[in-house]
Specification:
Layout: E1 2-6, E2 9-11, E3 17-24, E4 33-38, E5 45-50, E6 57-59, E7 67-72, E8 77-82, E9 91-99, E10 102-105, E11 109-113
Parallel strand pairs: 2-11
Antiparallel strand pairs: 1-3, 3-8, 4-5, 4-9, 5-6, 7-8, 9-10, 9-11
């Protein structure tokens, strides 16, 4: 299993950013996918989940209404569109999948929200 995140960077408060996760090594189109994040000095926290078909998604309360998770099964890629970003959204964002009773993680992409 390989999960490779990309698209992080520096953005001003109120701005937008989309991060991506390219997946391989498992049946992507039949797997729910997750995004987590870990802010400096804090524990990793769940952000969003999307079902295998993309028909349903769930979000953490802290980002609901600002972030949107989506996927392209033809490209084996999951996305996280982040709007109205706040300084407290600064974190390393990780892609995650659970397969065969095991959690798999990417190496993460850093998102910094600062003026």
């Amino acid at each position: 299993v390989q999960l490779v995140e990309s698209g992080g960077g520096l953005v001003q408060p109120g701005g937008s950013l989309r991060v991506s996760c390219a997946a391989s090594g498992f049946p992507f189109s039949s797997s729910a996918m997750n995004w987590y994040r870990q802010a400096p000095g804090k524990e990793r926290e769940w952000v969003a989940t999307i079902t295998s078909t993309g028909s349903n998604a769930n979000y953490a309360r802290s980002i609901e209404g600002r972030f949107t998770i989506s996927r392209d099964n033809a490209k084996n890629t999951v996305y996280l569109q982040m709007n109205s970003l706040k300084p407290e959204d600064t974190a390393v964002y990780y892609c995650n999948v659970m397969r065969w009773n095991q959690n798999y993680w990417g190496k993460g992409t850093l998102v910094t929200v600062s003026s």
